[in-house]
Amino acid sequence: MEELFSSFQNIPTTCISDVFEGLNNLDPSIKPLKEDYKFAGRALTVKMPVGDNLVVLKAIREAKPGDVIIIDAKGDQYRAIAGDFVVGMAKTLGVSAIVVDGVIRDITGIKNLNFPVFCKGTAVAASGKAGVGEINVPISCGGTAIQPGDIVVGDADGVVVIPQSMGQEVLEKSREKLKKDEQREQDVSGNVEAIKKYLDNMLSK
Ligand SMILES: O=C([O-])CC(=O)C(=O)O
């Protein structure tokens, strides 16, 4: 499994998306805090109520090194699911990324941690800590269904989810797609005649 995750780290999310024809991507409003963030890992799913993040602390406590904490926060943009303190603990315990259809706070501190956080943006208010929520249950995040153990991959373009059972197959297909994309680029790069030929060919179909 570890090998699969490190292999996916070398595949652009765009190629994985193309394999699924765009069906397994998270909503594009969920973006990396820094463009160079790239991760691939096992989904530790979190279902939290709007404005209460105690269950996020539980997820961090239970996470195994390499896990991606992926949170269904119902799209709430008013209460941060974590700040630099909480994200710092996740980083130190070996979590590989946090993905949420919600917001974070202390953005400067979180950027300084150089830890991949993918979210909808920032807010000033913290969440409460009353305590309901579930981990490792099926969730919906950014319009996509995610099962615990699925493979989550993120980079500058966004986040894509691969069902656990399809990991190897999708890796092979994504590699093929990457090769095709590179070849396509190589075939026309900087060559006016080759570009015209490519376009004419596409338009005559
Ligand atoms: O404690 C929280 O929920 C959010 C926070 O301020 C931090 O993580 O620094």
CATH architecture field: 3-Layer(bba) Sandwich
| Most strands sheet | 8 strands, mixed
Number of helices: 7
Class of secondary structure makeup: alpha/beta
Q: Estimate the helix proportion, in percent.
A: 25-40%
Say what the CATH topology is: Glucose Oxidase, domain 1
How would you state the average pLDDT, rounded? 97
Strand content: 15-25%
CATH H-tier superfamily: Ribonuclease E inhibitor RraA/RraA-like
Radius of gyration (Å)? 19 Å
Give a written overview of the molecule.
It is a single chain. The radius of gyration is 19 Å and the shape is elongated. It has helices spanning 2-8, 13-19, 54-62, 84-92, 107-112, 167-188, 192-203; strands spanning 31-32, 39-47, 68-72, 79-80, 97-100, 103-104, 117-119, 121-122, 125-126, 134-135, 139-141, 144-146, 151-155, 158-162. Strand 2, helix 3 (54-62) and strand 3 (68-72) form a beta-alpha-beta unit. It has a single domain, classed as Glucose Oxidase, domain 1, CATH 3.50.30. Strands 1, 2, 3, 5, 7, 10, 13 and 14 form an eight-stranded mixed beta sheet that branches. Strands 4-9 form a two-stranded parallel ribbon. Strands 6-8 form a two-stranded parallel sheet. It is an alpha/beta fold. The N and C termini lie far apart (41 Å). The structure holds oxaloacetate ion. Oxaloacetate ion binds at residues 53, 80, 82-86, 106, 126-127.
Write the layout of secondary structure elements.
Blueprint: H1 2-8, H2 13-19, E1 31-32, E2 39-47, H3 54-62, E3 68-72, E4 79-80, H4 84-92, E5 97-100, E6 103-104, H5 107-112, E7 117-119, E8 121-122, E9 125-126, E10 134-135, E11 139-141, E12 144-146, E13 151-155, E14 158-162, H6 167-188, H7 192-203
Parallel strand pairs: 2-3, 3-5, 4-9, 5-7, 6-8
Antiparallel strand pairs: 1-7, 2-10, 2-13, 11-12, 13-14
Helix pairs in contact: 2-6
The structure holds oxaloacetate ion.
Oxaloacetate ion binds at residues 53, 80, 82-86, 106, 126-127.
